[in-house]
What does this fold into?
Amino acid sequence: MYDMDDIGDYDLLVVGSANADLVVGVERRPAAGETVLGTDLTVHPGGKGANQAVAAARLGARTALLARVGDDAHGRLLLDSQRAAGVDTGGVRVGGAPTGVALITVDPSGDNSIVVSPGANARLTPADIRAADELLGRARVVSLQLEIPLDTVAEVARTLPPGARLVLNPSPPAPLPADVLAVCDPLVVNEHEACFILGAEEAGATPEEWARALLALGPRSVVITLGAQGALVADGEAGGLDHVASPKVEAVDTTGAGDAFTAALAWRLGLGESLSQAAVYAVRVGAAAVTRKGAQEAFPTAEEAGSL
Ligand code: RIB
It folds into this structure.
């Protein structure tokens, strides 16, 4: 049996993916059947799980990552980035398949298109989660995304120690079991993810409608990220909707901004802030993250986020 005193070793445990991001800048992202020329290729540490862990650690959170990388150069790049940010990598398994890779094009407005080859991420199994029960038991907040198998995500949700809080960003979106949805506090989605989960017919037309419809599916709370417009917060217990505005910034590259937002939100919730308070902080972190190129390299320190 755990209580908050027992589970205070980590502010945040991220369970998720780690990818090498292979990035090309383009004037225009290609349509179906089209070929475009781009910039020289650059390789960066990425992956939604690894990004969240670095984002939280850079802000000052005591952070651990549970993930799987290959025994290869990309895996070492990812581990180096985690360790440089101060993330505890004792939960990162090595081997079984090549490290995951994300093929990313970024256009001049900072928008991107991403294709992920999961590689080792697809080999992070429910057995890996059961073997890490001690790590899970030491985190105030556990954050998940969907670049690892859904069975593995469900195992985390089903074995979450009492007192720990679960944050889930269902990206890329997939149908979620009711018992997983029921422990999300919050479910963090963008417009595409909200409409996927609700079904195009049922989704409604506004973020307020999406938030109410998502809450009706069972999560304890919902946060809808709205890019430059900030975020909409829906706390099932407190009731009501709260719109949180984002500071205005010049977007250079939006890659990983959602991961930085979710990491900041999860960390601040673990410190005891309300969902709205945590979202006010998280939109600043997300905004700062779009002002520089890349994902992990672009994430702000607490001081940089505070200066926006
Ligand atoms: O959310 C951004 C991330 O998505 C990238 O770093 C890429 O690896 C993909 O996982």
